[in-house]
Amino acid sequence: MKRPKIRRPLPGPKARKIIQQDRKLLSPSFTRSYPLVAHRGRGVWMEDPDGNVFLDFTAGIAVTSTGHSHPDVVKAIKKQADRFLHMSGTDFYYEAQNRLAKKLAELAPGKFAKRVFFTNSGTESVEAAFKLARYKTKRERMISFFGAFHGRTMGSLSLTGSKVKQKENFGSLVPGVTHVGYGYCYRCPYNLVYPECNIDCVNYLEHTLFKKTVPPEEVAAVIMEPIQGEGGYVVPPLGWHQRLRELTRKYGILLIADEVQAGMGRTGKMFAVEHWGLEPDIITCAKGIASGLPLGAMIARADLMDWEPGSHANTFGGNPLACMAALETIRLLEEGLLQNAASVGDYLISGLKELSRRFPLIGDVRGVGLMVGIELVRDRETKEPAVRERDQIIKQAFQKGLLLLGCGESGIRFSPPLIVNKGHVDIAIEILEACFKKVAPRLVSAIR
Ligand code: PLP
Question: How many angstroms does the Cα of residue 295 sit away from the middle of ligand 1?
Fold first, then answer.
C-alpha cells in the first residue's frame, strides 16, 4: 500500500521559494494553515515540488470528488478543449450546458420541472438563489443560520454567519437578513437537549421571530446548509430539515438548500437533503460538481425561474470544459463513488469514534458519508474549545504527510476525494493517532 513520503524539513527548498514569492505577490487575505505547495496530484495523493507525497483528506476543500486528475475527467476535458474552450452561455447556445442541466434537473429531489442557472463558484450560486428568491417573491427579507457559510461576495456574505472576521471592515451588507440558531445539538444554541427539545430551534422562528421582529410575509427565503460545512461539519438532528420545510411552506417562504459543500455525492447521496427526504425549492451547488474545474449551479423549480432576459447572467458560467468534466464526474458518482462515499465514510466515522474513546480531546465525532468532522474540546464537561490543540494537530498531520483542514471553532474536517478506500482511512487514523499522542498527553496533564 502506498504511503505518504516526507523528507524533512517541510517545506523543502522548492516549496519554500514558491511560498516566498506568493507572500510578496498574492493577497494576504487567505487562511493558509500550513505550507503545502501543490505540484502534482493523482487520486488521493498530492505531491509537492520537492517530491514529498501527502495523503489528501481535504480534496482541495471538498472539490476533487473523483480524486486529483481522474483520467476519465481529464479525457473529457481534453476532448472538449479540442472543440472549443468558451462561447458564453449568456449570448449563445451549446449542447454541453443542455446535457448537464438535464442531468442535474433529473437528479435534484422533487418530481416537479426544474431549470438551471450555471455559475463559476459557490458564492455565485448563492447570489443567484438570493436574487431569484427576491425577484420571484417580491419579498426582501432572508433568514439564515449562525455558523452558516454561503460565500464572500456581498450578497452571500450577508447570509454567511460563520466568523466575524469574514464581515468586519466591509461595511454594511445587504439588509434584511436575520440569523437564527442552527440544529447544532452538541452546542445547542438554546441550551436544550434533543429530542426533548422538540426541535425548538426551528419552532423559534414561528414562536418568536415571526411574532416579534420579522413579518413572515416579508421573508423571501430561508437558506440552510443541510449539513454545515465551514461552520463545523454539523449534522442537524432527525426532524430538523422536515420541520423547516413544513414551516416555510406554511408561510409561502422559499427553502434554499446550499449544497455547495455537502452536495454532489459527498454524503453518499447525490444531494445531502435526500437523507431527510427533503425537496427544497432551490438548490445551490459548486465545489465537487466538476472534480476541480470551476463550476457552480443553481437548480430551481421551473415555475420560480421565470425572470426576464437580461435580469441575471454571467460570462463564464457553464463553461463547456467544466460542463463536460461535471457530466463525467456525475457518471463516476453514479457508477460507484456514491456507494463508496457511504461505506468508506461509515468506516472513517467508526475509526474516529474508536480514537475518541482513547483521546478525551475529541469531544464529538459526526458526519454523513465522507463529510466527517471531529470537534476538539479541552474538557468534555465544559466543552471548552481546544483551538490551539486543533491547530497543532493539523500542523503535525501535515508534517507526517496527511492533509487536513479545520472547520468551526475547534473542529477538524475529513473531506477526502470520494475514491478513498479503507486502507487510506487506516493510514489517516494511524497518523492522527500519532498526532494526538503528541498533543493530547500534555493537554490532559494540564487540565489535571
Ligand atoms: N456555500 C457553502 C456551503 C460553502 O461551503 C462554500 C465554500 O466553502 C460556499 C458556499 C462558497 O463557495 P465558493 O468558495 O466557491 O465561493
Answer: 12
- Asked if residue 202 has its Cβ within 6 Å of ligand 1, the reply is no
Ligand 1 neighbourhood includes 245 CB (under 6 angstroms):
no
* Ligand 1 atom closest to Cα of residue 156: 10
- In our burial notation (b when 16+ CB lie closer than 10 A, e otherwise), range 323-344 reads bbbbbbbbebbeeebbebbbeb
Per-residue pLDDT tens digits for 122-172 = 999 999 999 999 999 999 999 999 999 999 999 999 999 999 999 999 999
User: Ligand 1: distance of its center to the CA of 76 in Å?
Assistant: 25
Q: Which three cell numbers stand for residue 363?
A: 469531544
Tell me the per-residue pLDDT of 122-134, one tens digit each, with 9 for 90 and over. Answer: 999 999 999 999 9
Whether 189 and 202 have beta carbons less than 8 Å apart is answered as no
**Ordered structural domains, the chain, with CATH:** 13-69+336-446 (3.90.1150.10), 71-332 (3.40.640.10)
Q: What is the pTM of this model?
A: 0.97
Residue 116: φ, ψ to 5°:
-125, 140
pLDDT at residue 440, rounded to an integer: 78
Cα separation, 70 vs 97, whole angstroms: 21
**Residue whose CA is at the smallest distance from ligand 1 atom 14:** 122
Ligand 1 centre distance from Cα of residue 433 (Å): 30
Q: How far is CA 135 from the centre of its chain?
A: 26
